[in-house]
Amino acid sequence: MRRIYVKEEVCIGCRLCEIHCQVEHSASRDIIKTFKKEIPAPSRVMVEEKGATSFALQCRFCPEPFCAYSCITGAIRQDLATGEIIHEPEKCIGCWTCVLLCPRNAIRPDLRDSRVAVRCDLCPDREIPACIEFCPNDALYEVEEEF
Amino acid sequence: MASGIFDFLIIGNSAGGIGCIEGIRKEDRKGRIAVVSDESHHVYSRPLITHLIAGDVPPEGMDFRPRDFYREQGVEPFLGVRATEVDPGEKTVKVCPVEGGPGRVLKYRKLLVATGAAPFMPAMEGLELDGVTPMISLEQSLRVSRDLERVRNAVVLGAGLIGTKTAEALASRLEKVTLVELGDRILAPVTDPVSSRMAMEAFRKGNVDILLNNTVSGISGDAKGRVAGVTLKDGTDLSCELLVLAAGVRPRVDLLEGSGIRLADVKRGGGIDVNTRMETSAKEVYACGDCAHAHDFVTGGMKLLPLWPNAYVGGRIAGLNMTGSGFAHTWATNMNSVDFFGLPMVSAGFVLKPEEKGFEEVVREEKDSYAKVILKDDVIQGLIMAGDVNRAGLYLGMMRSRVPTTSFKEELLSDEFTAAQLPTDVREEMMQPIRGIE
Questions:
Q1: Which residues contact B224 (CB under 8 A, 6 or more apart)?
Q2: Which has the least CB within 10 A, A57, B74, B119, B373?
């Protein structure tokens, strides 16, 4: 299982990870068009900052996924063989139960037209997820873990 | 039908039953599992039945798990088959096909009762008329969808979650929908007066008439045996070709009559009495979901929590424990999330501040959003958010982990509040995936 972690002591709270997450999940994938011409997608990584403390947080793909346990439509479920989380936005009706149940605050309502819950997808079209690649201080890193 | 003994027999093919199968299969890939349900459909998402009426989910979108789920998980489904009697001494369940035909007896080693809830039907004449229906099953929603072209006006009785979602769905298809509620606000169990008013406003904009402090006292039919109208408590007559009765649900426990399996007191809702391991009073018999009690981590007591996630997790814990694990289900509380006409609303734990000493509220009201937390000794015990639910998970997580908010409780709901303010140990835990459910 690939997971993204953060070094809290290195994170500078600049929120560039949020910006580039939004760009990566936009129609144009262009930073200027994303924020000037489109309604930006919600960021799937959230920077939490207070004073000297800051860290970025995204989905941890939990072995005990409260999101899957609470999903009322079957849009989010756990693959019983691998433990991976299957997330099918086309089955999502935007009831936001997973948003309420994720204690990591890692699922967000996408309130644009489709109104579905979204989370980190590890940027399937990129070799390195955008948040990691564009972090100016190498605060984010990826690890491959046993489930 | 297959014969022999089932290692795991599950009565009920909804959230609890599926949770149980997935819990069992986490630990035991081989044991023989059977599921019995009087509904003949593949497992479907019950909360979606109103979306089927609205037309925003197609019939094939109702599946809660892929079509090959039973085969993949090695489950023998007995669908369209009703369980009528449980004998925990003999470890048998009597079943018979709903469509008629000979019944038979299934033997089990471990049994889960996840029969769900039945709609409460008010005692009055006219319930048998065409166009009068509860709204709790796929069958009922398919029938209403089919008949909808004959309907111009609909009345929905009861403004709980089922009634409000039904009214919302019907409003997208019909000229006139009236929602009648006996209480003085809609969605009482999951709202406070402010969030209830916001929901009322969403319904008003969505073209649903809401009548509070009122109820249906009489139903009238036409010569063809179809519903033609209702008379309300205050004397108002409303014509309607559809009347949906959503005046609450009751645990479905009739099949346990004579089994000796203990039920909770009627004053406590009368569901199946279980402990936090989901064990009933009978050996090797477990229960979960709307038919059984569950632990509420906010109040600490056992009560009915007829909510989809509670059923799923209760079933999962039961399934794990049926394979020999020893988990406790302490995950649930009164928690709901719902969206009406684009207004998202969540609640968890207390929605009204208890009278007892030591409780306090923090509130944030904006033009289009509302948030409230209820605290006791600086620990969150209740949450309401409407209009903007972005941080709901963080608050419920803090509630579950009993994080003291003393140093930041005044700004808990402000834009200034961030998870970076949480104590170091809580933050460190937040960085890690969740590996345990207790």
A1: B130
A2: B74
